[in-house]
Amino acid sequence: MIWVAGSVLVWLAATAANLALARATGPGDRWRRLAIPALFGLALLVLWEGLVRGLGVSPVILPPPSAIAARIAVSGDILWTDFLQTILKGALSGWLIGCGAAVLTAIAIDRSPFLQRGLLPVGNFVAALPVVGIAPILVMWFGFDWQSKAAVVVVMVFFPVLVNMVAGLAATDAMQRDLMATWNASYGQALWKLRLPAALPFLFNGLKIATTLALIGAIVAEFFGSPTRGMGFRISTAVGQLALDLVWAEIAVAALAGTGFYGLVTLLERRLTFWHPSQRRS
Question: 116 vs 103, 162, 275, CA distance in Å?
Answer without folding.
Answer: 14, 11, 29
